[in-house]
């Protein structure tokens, strides 16, 4: 396949050829139309010249016509030899018509025509009325079209009515053969020069594209995604393309980085329980281990297995959410009973952790969603607050209904999150620091808030966080609400949850707990 540069050159040559052919055709049409006007003007000028010659001859006293009376008819106008001597030197097509409509003089070329053609010229109505006329006449085996005009002037005497002059129609026309010959001569030169210029321009215009292509070829894997394409200062198409590709490379770099971090974090989270399980199994299999120690080792291994199962289940949930393959049962859900149920669970967890759990204000609202997933969302937020609130602290749950939505807030008086860490709160496997991870015996994997974020987004809402280090945190989930009657019309439907939104990398919208 030809390169774009060659295709551009060939396209330019084809366009130029088409333009030249169209120009030649238009030129021929224009010349053909204007040729008739030019022939008419030349014929009129020739007639005026003949009239001027006749006037000059009469002024000098030369007798050009006379009247002859016969006993068989009235007076008849005749031409004298002087008129012939005056007009014979002019070889063009012209006639002098007398006052009685007869031909007083015919030029040599007119006399060569047939009697019928000569009679046609004299009797042409257009010529009698002083207008131009195109008359076909026979010239040997061919037919020629004469453009004839009639000129009158009273100064040429009472015996002469008009002077008819004519020229062939193609007198001023541009012959097609001449036009074709001219085109055949100049076209090769124009095409060669134009092809060279087009090839040069194509190469110059395509050079920036070659540079972009070479730069992109150099970025072959995830290790080169930090490189960027050169961008010009202008706002042309290539500058926009470079900027778009650079933005895409930035997103890819973030995605690859998130993927590497995700893989490393998942491996790290799995490494520790696997090591513990191996040690417990080896201890249980040792011949010197007592029955009681063996049962303790197996119990510890079972706990680690359960912990790993929770981790794998969370990862599977997020993976399905990313691909949009997680199904959600949409139905009418009243949030007040659901919140009170979660509050009772939080009371139990808070009693064990030595915390005060409060729910001072709860407004009811109807949400079209999956009750199980919504319960999971609220439990994740509540357990996250309990997990990172020291003993003696307080956790507060509120729900405020607003037009078209409801805001569910979970506030704690825990250790809080530093401002520098807030942008990463919803990253998978993220924990602010080791102190935060050690703050509770129930340290998680850093996936709880990520799942909570996905559940909120799957229901068309948003999850935000406000926090200050040492002052506690406030997580607010805003969910769209519906009127109960419209919710019943909706009915119970099953739909796939949309993939969670991204900030430029696959995991950027998920959080950890």
SSE string, helices as H and strands as E: HEEHEEHHHEEEHHHEHEEHEEHHEEHE
* CATH-assigned fold name of the largest domain: Beta-Lactamase
Indicate the proportion of strand residues.
15-25%
* Low-confidence runs of at least 5 consecutive residues: 434-442, 490-513
Distance between the termini: 57 Å
Regarding CATH, which class of the largest domain?
Answer: Alpha Beta
- Rg over CA atoms, rounded to whole Å, is 52 Å
Tally of individual helices: 13
Task: Please give the order of strands in the largest beta sheet.
Answer: 4-3-7-6-5
- Tell me the total number of β-strands: 15
Helix content: 40-55%
Describe the structure.
The protein has 513 residues and is an alpha+beta fold. The chain folds into three domains: 4-176, Beta-Lactamase; 237-316, no CATH class; 327-496, Heat Shock Protein 90, CATH 3.30.565. Helix content is 51%, strand content 20%. The protein is built from 13 helices and 15 strands. It has helices spanning 4-59, 81-87, 108-111, 115-123, 125-128, 176-218, 237-285, 291-323, 335-353, 371-387, 434-438, 448-458, 484-490; strands at residues 65-70, 73-79, 93-98, 103-106, 133-139, 142-151, 160-168, 327-334, 356-362, 366-369, 394-402, 405-412, 462-468, 472-480, 493-496. The chain has a five-stranded antiparallel β-sheet, with helices on both faces. It has a five-stranded mixed β-sheet with strand order 9-11-12-14-13. A three-stranded antiparallel β-sheet has the order 10-8-15, sandwiched between helices. Strand 1 (65-70) and strand 2 form a beta hairpin. Helix 1 (4-59) runs antiparallel to helix 6 (176-218), helix 8 packs parallel to helix 12 and helix 10 packs antiparallel against helix 12 (448-458). It is rod-shaped. Mean pLDDT is 76; it is low at 434-442 and 490-513.
